[in-house]
Amino acid sequence: MSAIVEAIGVGRRYGPTVALADVSLTVAAGESHALVGRNGAGKSTLVSILTGLSKPDTGSVLFGGEPAPALGDREAWRTRVACVYQHSTVIPDLTVAENLFINRQPTRRGVISWPRLRRESRELLDSWGVAVDVDLPAGELSVEDRQLVEIARALSYGARFIVLDEPTAQLDSDAIGRLFSRMRELQDAGVTFLFISHHLQEVYEVCQAVTVLRDARHILTGPVEEVSRSRLVDAMTGETGGLTVVDAAGRERIGADTEDVLTAAGLSGDGFTDISFGLRRGEVVGIAGSNASGKHQVAETVYGLRAPTAGAVLVGGRPLPRGDVKAALRAGIGCVPRDRHHQGLVLGMSIADNTAMSILDRLGSGGLVAPRARAAVATKAIADHGIVASGPAQPADALSGGNQQKVVLARALASDPSVLVLINPTAGVDVKSKEALLGQVERIRAEGKAVLIVSDELDDLRPCDRVLVLRAGTLVAEHEAGWSVGDLVADIEGVVTDD
Ligand SMILES: Nc1ncnc2c1ncn2[C@@H]1O[C@H](COP(=O)(O)OP(=O)(O)OP(=O)(O)O)[C@@H](O)[C@H]1O
Which residue numbers delimit the ABC transporter domain (predicted)? Predict the structure, then answer.
């Protein structure tokens, strides 16, 4: 098979940080090639070089055996490669049609021809089987449709090599299934994918080849059927011995008379109605449901981001003020919010400032905190969570995605909360760090605190004593630890089983 793209001996530094060292990668035309590695391994850096967003310090990139275009020649790059990021690159206020033909709108006698723009957009989407209304503002697209529009746009420039950077991170299981069948169809039509994911089962499901990076270096490349899951994990971690996921089924049940640390009493709000549950001391409770179930809204109401329209959240028997994050924090509720980019981190600030943000009042008086105190908090966070960083002063936006998520968790724990609310806590976090993070949940629980985990990931729900299932805004089921995937998914999806 011929190579659609080759990176040869590529190296890249950011100041003192070596992000890539002498990395070579060949992607064969027509395959789906997985790129995996732990947080900070260098995957995004390699993608930025393969897509012409940054220049390697050493080495070179070839497309179809020819040298890559000059960095500034965006037109030429666009005909060779595109990357669909987790974060949208569409302009939300423009329609789908305008986004598809941005800066190359069809014109008639020198002015933009709107009828042609809409017609050609529809033809383009139809030709790739994308059923999206071209008149819709792009900001209203679901993540799934937005990704398809971005793929169609890339294809329309002539690119047949597409990088998908953690495309499944924000999709529920049905949407993931649809994305994978779409990838297979496109592959049959001659499209090549480089697929980045922290979910190794996805690599086996949809890719034919896999490359592992570790600590900025190339570790292995091979056909997926020849690389077992344990070998993959070993290559990623540089250790042998695999992973152990905490499972609440293996520990003693919480006594029914254990007091509640937090009670949700008849909560109603945007997208959910009359939700009641208690979180007992030392208990981990999960909430599962599809994206439309209202599970995120319930969790956000618990930590004060949303005000309920009815009902209350009680901590130690006392109701919290509605929709008041600060009051919730004071009452001992720490949180890992749903979207680290908007609610979780101040990207321009250092790791030290981000981790200490919720506890400034404890570190110093009158808002004055000695830099050393902040740095000490951050140094501990870096060690506890295995954050790959040059030090506490590194700005959060210079961290890899997974390491940013670890900073968010460190901040949630910095205030020593009695209740921890975690929303998609392992999003973008690598397998080994996920194990460590779920281990932290176990530690917190063992200290007698309570944890609420809301996640799209079934693995994240394993440490839960019980999992509540929400569907269309109401509580429909509760599963004790030890649940079977089939039973839980059937309740999440609302599938009626025969038994
Ligand atoms: N702009 C930057 N300034 C300084 N360091 C950076 C910058 N971008 C990346 N790095 C560093 O380069 C290394 C590789 O980061 P990269 O984002 O490529 O990792 P990754 O494999 O994509 O990780 P993740 O799975 O967490 O997204 C990390 O140590 C990161 O902190």
Answer: 5-240, 256-497
Assess whether the C-beta atom of 390 lies below 6 angstroms from ligand 1. no
Instruction: Report the separation in Å between the CA atom of 353 and the middle of ligand 1, taken as the mean of its atom positions.
Output: 19
What mean pLDDT value characterizes the chain? 89
Q: Is 407 in the pocket of ligand 1 (CB under 6 A)?
A: no
Ligand 1 neighbour 40 (Cβ under 6 A)? yes
Q: What one-letter code names the amino acid at 26?
A: T
Q: What is the pTM of this model?
A: 0.82
Structural domain of 226 = 3-90+141-237
Which residue from 489, 459, 469, 484 is spatially nearest to 247, judged by alpha carbons? 459
Q: Looking at residue 157, which CATH number applies to its domain? A: 3.40.50.300
**What is the domain count for the chain?**
2
- Identify the sign of the CA torsion 181, 233, 39, 15: negative
| Residue listed under structure tokens 């109701």 | 319
> Does any ligand 1 atom lie closer than 6 A to the CB of residue 405?
no
Q: Is 191 exposed, middle or buried (0-12, 13-18, 19+ CB in 10 A)?
A: buried
How far is ligand 1, taken at its centre, from the CA of residue 19, in Å?
A: 6
- The H or E element spanning position 382 is helix 371-385
Residues 439 and 458 in one domain: yes
> Do residues 160 and 191 share a domain?
yes
Nearest residue by C-alpha to atom 17 in ligand 1: 400
Per residue in 193-207, pLDDT (tens digit) is: 999 998 889 999 999
Q: DSSP per residue over 186-231, as a string?
A: HHHTT-EEEEE-S-HHHHHHH-SEEEEEETTEEEEEEEGGGS-HHH
